Amino acid sequence: MCGIVGAVARRNIVPVLVEGLRRLEYRGYDSCGLAVVTSDGPRRVRSVVRVAELDDQVSEVRFEGVTGIAHTRWATHGAATINNAHPIFSSGSLAIVHNGIIENYQALRETLREQHYEFVSQTDTEVIAHLIHSLYKGDLFAAVREAVRQLTGAYAIGVVHQDHPHTLVGARAGSPLVVGYGNDENFIAWDALAIAGSAEHISYLEEGDICEIALKGVRLVDFRGDKVVRNPRRVQAYGGAVELGPYRHYMQKEIFEQPRAISHTIPATDTFRPRLFGEMASDVFRGIDSVLILACGTSYYAGLTAKYWLESVAKIRTEVEIASEYRYRESVPNPRALVVTVSQSGETADTLAALKHAQSQGMTHTLAVCNVATSAMVRLTELKFLTHARMEIGVASTKAFTTQLVALFVLAVTLGKVRGHVNDAQEAEYIHQLRHLPAALNAVLALEPQIIAWSDDFVRKEDALFLGRGLHYPIALEGALKLKEISYIHAEAYSAGELKHGPLALVTEAMPVVTIAPNDALLDKLKSNMQEVRARGGHIYVFADSDTHIKSDDGIHVIRMPEHYGLLSPIPHVVPLQLLAYHTACGRGTDVDKPRNLAKSVTVE
Ligand code: F6R
Questions:
Q1: Strands 233-234, 201-204: parallel, antiparallel or unpaired by DSSP?
Q2: Which positions are catalytic residues (predicted)?
Q3: Does 2 participate in catalysis according to the annotation?
Q4: In the CATH scheme, what architecture does the domain 246-444 have?
Q5: Which ligand 1 atom minimizes the distance to the CA of 351?
Q6: Where in the chain is the domain with CATH 3.40.50.10490?
Q7: What is the mean pLDDT of residues 127-154?
C-alpha cells in the first residue's frame, strides 16, 4: 500500500527521502516518486519500476533539495503509470502525495473542471491538488485546512508549494501519518520506520489533525483548528535491512522463524491471568457474555479457528465476521460482547472501520490481537495482546498467522478459567502443549524436502481443492489462500462434508485435492470424503497425523505429520501448506515476496 515520506531541512534531503521509500517498499507498491521545492516550482522524478531505479534517476540528474515529499503508490484510481505516480502537481506550483481514497472525487473534479483546471492523471489525488490550489491565497496551511473540509473518504497527505521553500503541510483522516522531530529538520511519514535515524521523536497524528512542518518546529491543529500537542515519543533506532540469511525469500525465512516467533508470543508465566491482556481485563472478562471477532484475510481465518477454541474451551458464544462486511451490515449490537480485532499490521482500513463501527454502537469492550505495538488498532482498543512475530516482510502472512493463533488460544484458556470451565490441571496441560509447539514445528519444517517433491506436481496445475473438517476447515481456507496469492493457481477450500453438495462436480484426474487429516473425532468421516474424491479420479495429497493409518496408494499421496497435536493441531498443520504454496510459487517463478496486485497492509477500503 502507499507510503509517504516528507521533510524540511537545511541539508539536501533527497537521500533521506529515497531511504525512507526503501524502508516502506515491503508494504507493496507499483510506482514511486519524489519532488523537491524550487523557486521555479516543484521538480519531480517518478518511476514505475522500483525505488532503486528512482535512486538511479536522482543520481543521474543531480536531483537535490532541502524540502521535499516522496511516495510509493499502490494503484487504486488509474493504472500504475508514470502519469498517475505521485507526487501529483497542480498548475506547476504545488505538489502533493496522498494515501487513501477520496470518495467524492468525481463531483469535485467536475467543479474544478468548470474552474478550468486540466486533469492529466486518472488519480483522485489530482482533485486534492487542484482543490488546494484553487483555495490558495498565499497561506498554504489555510488552503489545506479549507480543502480537507470538502473531502469525503480517507487521506493522509503531504503538500508543498513553490512560494514556501521551507514548509510542508500534512493532514490525516482515516489513513495514518506521523510527524517526526529532528535536529533543525522535521518530517512527516506513513510510519516511524521511514524516518528513524533522522527524526529523534515522533507523534502520531489523530483523525482530522493538520500539521505545518518548518525548519524550526511543527504547528499542529485538530479538526476544529485548535492547537494540540500529540504526545511525542522516542523513535527506536532503525535495525537496518532485514537479512535474508540462507533463505531465498523473506516468506521462506518467515516460515522457518515460526518456532521462535511462537515461543516469544507464549506468555512466560505459569498461569494465564487476565492482566496479560491489560489492566482492565479482569473486570472486562467477568462481564462479557460473548465474543465478536473482526478481521480480514488470513487474520480472519485465525478468527475462524479461534471460534472453535473459544466455544469448546471457554464455552463462550463466538461470532467471527469479515470486517469489510460487518462495517456496513445492520447488526444487533451487544454491549456485553468482547470485540476482538485480529490484525498483523494494526492498520487495515476495513478492520479499523469495523472496530470503530462496533464502538459507535456501544460495544466498548474491545481487544486488539496485533503484531505492531504502535499501530492505530492498538491505540484504539481497551485491551491488547501483542504477538511477537517481529516484522513480517513477505506479503503472504505466515508467522503473523501462527502467532495470532497462539494469542487466541491463550485468550480461550484465560476466558475458560475466568468462566470456571478450565481448572488448574487443565490449564497446566494447555500451557504444556503450547510450550511444546516450537519443537513440534521444527519437526514439521523438516518435512520440507517431501513437500518440495509434491510441489513439482502442483507447478503444472491451474486449480486445486483444499479440504479440512472442524478446527482444520479454516486451515484449509488459509492453505488455499496461500497457494492462490503467491502461485496464482486458482484454489478453493471446502469443509470436506460439503463436497457432495456441489464442489465434487469439479473433481477430475486433473484436480489435486489437498486434505488435512488430523487424528481427531472426524477422521473416519474425512476418510469417507477422501473415497468420494478418489472414486471420481481426483488425486489426493494428504497431510496425515502419524497415527491415522492413512497409507499412500494409487492416486493417494501421504506426508506423515510427526505426531498428533490435539487442540493445537491447526498450528502445525498450516505449516506444510505454507511450504507447499511457497515451493509451488518458486517453481512457477512468481515474485513470492511481492505477489502481483497485493500489498502488505491494506490501508484503503
Ligand atoms: C494474506 C494476508 C492478508 C492479510 C489481510 C489482513 O496472506 O496477509 O490476507 O491477512 O490483509 O491484514 P492484517 O492482518 O494486517 O489486518
A1: antiparallel
A2: 2, 600
A3: yes
A4: 3-Layer(aba) Sandwich (3.40)
A5: 16
A6: 246-444, 446-593
A7: 96
